[in-house]
Design goal:
The chain is mainly α and 335 residues long. The chain contains eleven helices and no strands. Helix 5 runs antiparallel to helix 6, helix 5 runs parallel beside helix 11 and helix 7 packs antiparallel against helix 8. The longest helix has 31 residues. The two termini are 27 Å apart.
Amino acid sequence: MRAFVRLLFTAALAGGVFASSGDRHPEFSYCTTSCSVTQCNSNPQLPLSLRLTGWTCIDDCKYRCMHHHRDELLKRGVEVQQYYGKWPFWRFAGMQEPASVAFSLLNLWAHVNGVAKIRRNVPNSHPMKSYYLTWGLTSINAWIWSSVFHTRDLPTTEKLDYFSAALAIFYALYYTIIRVFHLYPTQSQVLSSQKSTTLKRRALSWFCTIVYLLHISYLTFSPRFDYSYNMAFSLVLGLTHNFLWLVYSLPASFSLIRRFPNQVMGYRPSFVSQAAIFVALTTAATALELFDFPPWWRTIDAHALWHLATVPIAVMWYDFLVQDSLDQSWREQKA
């Protein structure tokens, strides 16, 4: 769910993306204009790291003027300002937000390791294995583009990051519905029941595919990126996902669903509680985004800390999926 929270937070700040108090300041505007005229007309060659990460001379002017302006304001006792919707960060090797890049790569590692854990521990005959592996791959893709986006915030990298994150969220909800409502394919079902389950699963697959394509098409072809809509879309997906896992984790005496095949509704192994813990930790991690603050040492802000917090949550979730898959109730279910 890291993607859901990040999209929600970004959308909430959308009003400052196009202009912020720092970049509207006359001194900053004068600095960038002067730098562009004196430095960029001669077509200077930037360092290799900046050229590889797509920096232009004007981009470099904005970066240097941002930090110069920040230093001047701090000397006057003025609080740190945002520039183009972002806090001023020290760049490293061309990366705009190096801490967020590093923590995104840690999440990437967590999902790569998690996919390997699913491959190694979940039997090939398990009906949910392919769904978990696919979700793991969509999450890996999302964290790759998160790393790219935090390296260079450009319109293209922004969309690829948002669209990849939305795909990971949507697929998480998709496999959750299949798991919780037992829509996975099995060989043990009677023919009539199997046909009904197959139709429901196909209908769900087509519905999710069409909705996702409409989602990215709207955001791609709109004259201006609709951050408010993007926030609402992510909010619905994320809350629905969390709600279903909370229902799954309810105490046995309050069970609303049959958690496992061939078991009574009240069957509830102890590891089921981990789903509720996951939801609680994910919600708690959201606080790191809500308490936004200027970056420490111009490097680590609330968003970067949130990326760091999601690493152990991802590791825990893969462990839970493995435990859930190895419950004895699945032994009679074969995909």
